[in-house]
Amino acid sequence: MSFLDGFSKNLGIDLGTANTLAYIKGRGIVIDEPSVVAVERRDNRVIAIGTEASEMLERTPQDIITIRPLENGVIADFEITQMMLKYFIKKTLKGFHLFKPIIVIGIPTGVTSVERRAVEEASQSAGGKKAILIEEPMAAAIGSNLPIHKAEGNIIVDIGGGTTDTAVMSLGGIVESESIKIAGDDIDVDIKEYLKKNYRLEIGIKSAERIKKQIGNAYKDYDVNYEKEDKLKELEITGRDLVTGLPKKVKLKDSEIRECIKDSLDSIIASIKRVIEKTPPELASDISENGINLAGGGALLKGLDKLIEKETGIITNISDDPLNCVVKGTGIVCENLKRFKNLQ
C-alpha cells in the first residue's frame, strides 16, 4: 500500500446475485440497488441499470430484456457486469477524483481463479486502482463484529440470493468452508413452482419473493418470536390461470410455504452440518459455546434460526443488520487496509 492510497476514496462492494451494495470510506453505505441490467435486444445497448432496470423485470416489451449478470454469486456475463460496476462506481464517486480508489469486493467461497480474475478485471476497467477480493463469509463476519482474530472458532452462514456460504474462522483466517448454489432465489423459485403445480397459477419471480417475505417461514412455531403484526398466516395472490389464461386469485397459507421450501432449507442445513463435521474438535467446541451466526437476506426468513438450532443442537443467532453485513465488512476492510493485510 502506497502513501497516496490514504487520499483515495476507497470502496467496499458486495457484488451480490440479487443486489449490489457499495460502501465508501468515511461515508458508509451509499448504494443499494438490484443487480439487474436492461438491454435492447437489437444492438445490446444498455438502457437501465439497478433500481430502474429492476422495475422493468417481467414487464418489458419484446425488444427489451432484463439481465441478472451474476448467477449463483459469480459473473455469468462479464461485459454486462463491467458496465454495471462502472455505473455503480461512477454513481458512488460522483465526479472527478485525482486518485483511483482501491475496491474491496466480497466474493463467494470456492470461486475459481478464472472467476477471480474476471472480478478483478471488471473492477479495474470500471475505474478502480486495484481490487482486493475477500470471501463473503469473512466479510460478513467482519461486518457482524465477530472476533475473527481471536484463537477461537466462530461460524457464520451467509445466505444470499445465489449462494449460501458457510465458514468457520479462527486467527483471522477461514479454517473450513463450503459454498452451495442454493439460497434465497431458489426459495422464490420453490414458491413459484408450487403455485404452478398445485394451483395451476403462474406468477412472476417478484411476486414469489413478496410471498416469501410476507408469509414465508421455516419453522412451525416461528411466530412466537415475532410481533403480532408479523403473524400473517394467509395471503391472497393474483396470477395467471394456466388453464384459462385469465387473472385468478388464490389464498395461500403459511404452512404451504413452509412445506414447499423444505428441500432447499434441508440442503442449506446439510451444508452447515458438513462444515461443522470437518471442523477440528477444539474449534467445534468453541462453536458449540459461541453459536451459529446467520447473515444475508436469507437470515430474515421467519423461524430459520429456530430450525437450524433444532437440527444442529447449536444456539443460532441472527446478525445485526444481516442484509448489510457483507458490504459493511468490505467497508471496514477498505478503511483498515493495514489491519486486514493478511486477507489480501
Quick synopsis:
With 344 residues, this protein is of the alpha+beta class. 35% of the residues lie in helices and 26% in strands.
CATH homologous superfamily title of the largest domain: ATPase, nucleotide binding domain
Radius of gyration: 21 Å
CATH class of the largest domain: Alpha Beta
The CATH topology annotation of the largest domain reads as Nucleotidyltransferase, domain 5
Distance between the termini: 11 Å
Quote the beta fraction: 25-35%
SSE order: EEEEEHEEEHEHEHEEEHEHEEHHHEHEH
CATH architecture of the largest domain: 2-Layer Sandwich
Shape assignment: flat
Number of domains: 2
Describe the model:
- This protein has 344 residues and is of the alpha+beta class.
- It folds into two domains: 3-139 and 325-343, ATPase, nucleotide binding domain (Nucleotidyltransferase, domain 5); 146-319, 2-Layer Sandwich (Nucleotidyltransferase, domain 5), CATH 3.30.420.
- It has helices at residues 51-54, 78-93, 113-125, 136-143, 184-199, 205-215, 254-260, 262-278, 281-290, 304-312, 325-335, and strands spanning 11-15, 19-24, 28-34, 37-40, 46-49, 64-67, 70-71, 74-75, 102-107, 130-135, 154-159, 164-170, 173-180, 201-202, 234-241, 247-253, 292-295, 316-318.
- A five-stranded mixed sheet has the order 3-2-1-9-10, sandwiched between helices. Strands 13-12-11-17-18 form a five-stranded mixed sheet. It has a three-stranded antiparallel sheet with strand order 5-4-6.
- Helix 4 (136-143) packs across helix 11 (325-335).
- The radius of gyration is 21 Å and the shape is flat.
- The termini are close together.
